[in-house]
Amino acid sequence: MLLYIGCTLLLACVSILDTSLGEVVFRCPSCAAERQAGCPERRTPCAELVREPGCGCCPVCARQEGETCGVYTARCSTGLRCYPKPGSEVPLQELVQGHGRCGRIHDGESKGSKENGADSAEFLDHSEVSLTEAIPEGRKTNGQRNEAKDLAVIRLRQTEQERQMSKGPKQPHTPEVSKRTRPKPSLCQKQLDQVLEKISMMHIHDEKGPLEFLYTMHMPNCDKQGLYNLKQCKMSVNGQRGECWCVSPSTGKPIPNSPVMRGDPECNLYYNENEDPKNSK
Fold first, then answer.
1. Model pLDDT for residues 35-57, shown as the tens digit of each residue
2. Which of 146, 149, 247, 278 is deepest in the core (most CB within 10 A)?
3. Domains of the chain in sequence order
């Protein structure tokens, strides 16, 4: 979940705010030369190089048609977009968890998505709706007005993320059934609620707006069962990857002796399911 992340999510009604879902939410700073110079040397050839996901500055191989993709994976190659499975009940969740597939852009979709504010839960275009995408060079902003719109988009998208994550099996819609079947929020969901509450209380108080404070917030990366994903990461800032660490799925507490690093800490090597408090009862 930018957990993540995240996790950042998308509603068709955003058009009411005089903005489209193509609005950039988090404004990444430009990549300094020293950041780019520190990128690792590529040892394998790529059909196409693209900027790494989030606010990173290093080039990575673009995902090709048919390969898995999502909000936090490398971008799809030119002419492709990241789509969830057809008919999926939780398309946004699939994109956040990296279970989408790169496919060719549907006829008229590119134009329609911008002019009509198409529901971007149906696809993921990193250049338009990535939660941590950079503003293209030369694009001008409108100060506080755009910041207010950005914050509104964040609120709506995070509300949708929460709704999708907590979506359970379909049940008859009666007050009795609702009370009986409503699942108790998990620790991860409760933590996510607290972050969303802080975001909802933000106000524009200077020219920079409230978005800079979002970089200091950790949005928990929850799975579809409401548990913490093993790997949790901070947001990329100033072209530098955020730190990642390993946690217990049930408690969210760091796994002892596991590393904290700017990259993949390979949490599966440090997690022992039998030692998890939830499974040791």
1. 788 888 888 888 898 887 766 77
2. 247
3. 12-129 (4.10.40.20)
